[in-house]
Predict the structure.
Amino acid sequence: MLLNSRIIDKVKERFSALKERVRLIVFTQEFECQFCQENRTLNEEIASVSDKIDVEVFDFQKNRIEVERYRISQIPATVVMGERDYGLRFYGIPGGYEFNSLLDTIVMVSQRESGLSAESKRRIKGWNKPTRIQVMVTLTCPYCPQVVRTAHQLAFENEFITAEMVDITEFPHLVSKYQVYGVPKVVINEKVQFEGALPEEAFIDRLLEV
């Protein structure tokens, strides 16, 4: 087991706020990557805490229909879904500080409420450009979960936005591709990039630059 009894008790407390069902869709493969097994196990253990959470596991090589449907580009990957796909992705195992990001996202989806301010909702309501937000993190970064949360809130609120947590220690080629010298680093549609934990309003300012 990955989660000890103390952590499970805390997860149960968090999940007391769950309302609607949540699906965790996990992508791995037969010859599992370095953290694929741990990611699958983590999601299964989380789901065992609440009867409102279901887990589905797909093989990245064999289940190409599902890979294309959810636009999965690498593994390990986790999709958090409610009654529909909100574009919420985790690439890499959401451990360390990002464990809270996963719990936050599950609760958000279950409650069917993004938690964005009324003004932020107003600003992105008419956004209709396909937008991919990648949040580069490390699991030891205490500031990264705030940025992941904001990105996921935006994706939940607007169907044209997808938001991904990406653990760069598991995908080192992205460090070079995006010149990641510090985390959190956000990349929006390969065009707009910024570092640091921007507040909600400033994050949306950068989004609208796209």
In short: The domain at 5-204 is CATH 3.40.30.80 (Glutaredoxin).
